[in-house]
Amino acid sequence: MIPEAWLAGLAGGALIGAAAVLLMALLGRIAGVSGIVGGLLPPRPAADFGWRLAFVLGLVAGPLLYTALSGRPGVGLPVAELPVLVLAGLLVGAGTTIGSGCTSGHGVCGLARLSPRSLVATLTFMATAGITVFLVRHVL
Amino acid sequence: MIRLLAALAAGLMFGAGLALSGMTDPAVVLGFLDIAGAWNPTLAFVMGGALAVTFLGYRLVLPRGRALLEPKLALPTARAVDMPLIGGAALFGVGWGLAGYCPGPALASLAAAQPGTIVFVAAMLVGMVAARLLRGQAAPVAPSPGRA
Q1: Chain A residues in contact with B72 (beta carbon < 8 A)
Q2: Is B101 helix (H, G, I), strand (E, B) or coil?
Q3: How is chain B split into domains, by residue range?
Q4: How far is B17 from chain A (nearest CA, A)?
Q5: pLDDT tens track, chain B, 148 positions
Q6: CA of A2 vs chain B CAs: smallest distance (Å)
Q7: What are the strands, taking DSSP E only, across chain B?
């Protein structure tokens, strides 16, 4: 039988996709989290501050809603040590800004638009992420 | 106000979807990225489900050329597959592989108020501001409204 975690993954993914379609249908926006958050930050935060902040607030509240409805924990624990989390956070923040997107913007919305840029970006970050995990877990 | 409620609803759905899918558990994410280990394929189902729904939904929405609450769609205009795109994505992947957090799940995981998650998100915001500052010096043009 198909493991429950896989089905939950499929259903959760579908919900993520539905959110992305809703944001495009109502506000005409790509549901790219790094881009939405980037527009809230200095220098020169975006003029359209409001919807970005509302989306991020919803994003943070989403797992709480999931827990309230399902009675299950919506969030796992961090697995890396604090210094590694600092380095990783800096890389994720800078990398998604320089590369104009992350898993949601490139990996979901960009691929759904059949964007060549997003395909290249997604293949690239999947590859370097896989290589990094391989080095950390099996080499170092 | 209606725009804010629309964005809040989309964010709630997105965050709940992340929680349901397992993306907010770094162990699940790293288990997917660890092809040489005990591979956990859950993330492939998440991305497949998200991509299928978004692809089909976009086919209905994008041809309209406008949103229900906005006169036009803010779609990315960049076309070049260039070094910032590839280099930035490469750096992002290294960070993703180190922590098991990409931006959406990291922010959604703030709901649990874990110190490690808060530290990661703070560093991520610092990284974003630093890259925005550098970009501002390199090219003093306003970024396109819709980035992806």
Answers
A1: 28
A2: coil
A3: 2-138
A4: 4
A5: 999 999 999 999 999 999 999 999 999 999 999 999 999 999 999 999 999 999 999 999 999 999 999 999 999 999 999 999 999 999 999 999 999 999 999 999 999 999 999 999 999 999 999 999 998 776 544 445 444 4
A6: 11
A7: none
